[in-house]
Amino acid sequence: ALCVHRSSPGDLRRGRIETLESGQVPPTAYLPECTGWSQMEDAVRGLLDEKHEYRTLVIDTANGACDMLAEEVKRTSFNNSQTDFNDYGKGQLQVRARWGAFLKSLDSLRVNRKVTIILLNHTKVKTFSDPAGKDYDQYIPDGNPKCWELTRQWADIIAYGGLKVQVSRDDKAYGDAKRYLRVESTPSIVAKNRYGLPPEIFPRGTGAKAM
Predict the structure, then answer these.
(1) Of 75, 124, 144, 148, which alpha carbon lies 20 to 30 A from 170's?
(2) DSSP SS3 for 58
(3) Residues 154, 1 contacting (CB under 8 angstroms)
């Protein structure tokens, strides 16, 4: 299972329809956009139970899915009350439990139906408080901390997708920025690599096949 968190440049945020229409990716099957958590669960259940030939499931974005789950929990368990949802963290405990069950469903899809799972996340910058030294900023996946806590343990690979910029001695950028994936952690980037991949992966050419 792969989790990719992406920085903000436009070439990494192009939507599915745009990339299809521009010919950057071949015709690709996709499910209707989920507007609620129950639709997300139904989609995965259908892939588990129904006959199909799909070999990859991409969820774009996982942090958006967690937001839908939180809204579902607030609506069904706390009568849409944000105050009750926040009370003693009770709402977040339910969100964590249901997200964990969802990840188990994805594992079943991966193991029993041989479907590769890819979760996409947006990225944010958060200051890491280092007890052994100075604090520093990190790129980490955005979204619900309770969901991310479980996702970080669950994923085989956590990759940061961004732009590699060359910097001169006078701290000025030069040349063309290159897209890349970082799959090993650094002080500034959260990543994970169980497959022994190179720390950084650069595309060859353009389009979906290049990455």
Answers:
(1) 124
(2) strand
(3) yes
